[in-house]
Amino acid sequence: MSSQQEPVAEFTTVQAVFVRQRNCLLLRADMSPLYVDYYLHLMQHGQRNAECEDGVLKKLLAYFTLHLVSRPWQEYHAWTFNTCSPSPANYFVSGSSVDEEVVGRAFTEGVRETETNMLFAQNLMPNKDPQTSAITLGKGSVESWVESYYRQSEQRMARAFDLGNDRFALLTAQPGADHDWLEALTAEDVQNIDGTEQTKVLETRKFYFRCGCTVDKILPIIRSLRHNFADQLSEQGYVEASCPRCGATYKVTTEMLEGGDAPDTPPA
């Protein structure tokens, strides 16, 4: 047997599996490829999250990605968490199946302290007004946050499981679901579900950790606010602009603002 490890896939594949007789939808995936992209992004932009925030953000990225597959393809979703536990922080995750991407970041500076954890969820659908909900969460695990979101916003039961080794699962109740079975599930049950239940793979979707931001997309915003950066541009010849979705920082020079082409160089 070869001692070499299997190469990590280029993207994360999420399976949507219908559990027959239980009327539940199982979403499951190995998040390793997405996490590789996440850490490469942090390294490229000189970012680093503390251990606590890093662990929370990775779980949120996992369950959010699974949630996207439980929803229609054309929808775009975003979750913003304001937490006091396990630490004061803000977390933002967003993405869509159409773009095949999810992105997220953690904020620890300038965080408004609260007495409870809160989730602000937004759902954008073509040609419809955005749907927004604010949900009060307990101070428990990330899994309990996701289950609270489904109970309060989706109006149905869901169970979230960290299966270890970057593998995660989310089970959501469908009409006529066996709620007693769903409530009693354990992580071991979920790992062995193909051998104990009648299951059928309905579809698969693929995802990357990717934002899509570029300096060319940021330039129009900086141009519109140029007067706010006049002193900084005069003194050093550039300003640094950060993407609010992923935290990538770009150097925007005076020449670029005056209409020159953006350089083919990595972000700042």
Explain what the structure shows.
The chain has 268 residues and is an alpha+beta fold. It has two domains: 12-209, Hsp33 domain; 215-257, no CATH class. Helices cover 30% and strands 33% of the residues. The protein contains nine helices and twelve strands. The chain has helices spanning 32-44, 51-69, 142-154, 179-184, 187-191, 193-196, 215-224, 230-236, 254-257, and strands at 12-19, 24-30, 76-83, 89-96, 101-107, 117-124, 131-137, 158-164, 167-173, 199-209, 238-242, 249-253. The strands form two sheets. It has a ten-stranded mixed sheet with strand order 7-6-3-4-5-10-1-2-9-8. Strands 11-12 form a two-stranded antiparallel sheet. The protein is elongated and about 70 Å long. The protein starts with 11 loop residues before the first strand and ends in an 11-residue tail after the last helix.
